[in-house]
Amino acid sequence: MTLKERKIVKRLNHPVYTADFLERWICRNDNVNINAPAALQAMGAKGFYEAVKQMAKFNEDEFVNTPLWRELFRTVSEWDEALGNKAKETQETLLTVQDRRKCEEWDGISRHCEDKFKVFKLMFEQFYGMKIYFVRDADSYGVCNEDRSVWIVKGWREQDEYG
Length: 163
What we know:
The protein has 6 helices and 3 strands, in the order ααααααβββ. By secondary structure, the protein is mostly helical. The longest helix is centred in the last third of the chain and has 32 residues, at 97-128. It is elongated, with a radius of gyration of 23 Å. The two termini are 44 Å apart.
C-alpha cells in the first residue's frame, strides 16, 4: 500500500478495514472450497482496497480544472462576500430601512450559498469519503477537511477595517 492509500484508509476510519488489516488480506488467494471464511474475508478486503485505489487516483491538479471545482469556488467566494458585506452593514447601531434591505439581501445570498454548499458537502462525502467544511479567517476563506490539512478551495481577501 502506498502512503496516500494508507492515509485514505485512516481517513475512512472503517472499524474492520484498517491499513494493517488490508495489507494482510489483499495478497491472499484462499480457495472458497478449502477455507470459505478466509476466502470471503480476502474478497471483502480486496473490494475495499480497490475502492481506496480509485480514491487515491483522484488528482487534485486535474480537479481544479473541472466545472465542479469552479462552481464550488464561485459558491464559497460569493458566500464569503455575502457574510462580509452583511457584517459591514450591521456595524451601525441604527440601521436605515435601506440598510436593513441590504442585510436581508445579503442574508438571502448567504442562505442560497449555504444550501448549495450542503450539496457539495454530501457529494464529497459520498464520492471521496471526505467531510468538508467552509471556513473563514481574518484574511482568507475556503473549503477544507476538519483539521485543515487538505484544502479544496482557498481564497484570500483584501484586508479592510471590517476583516
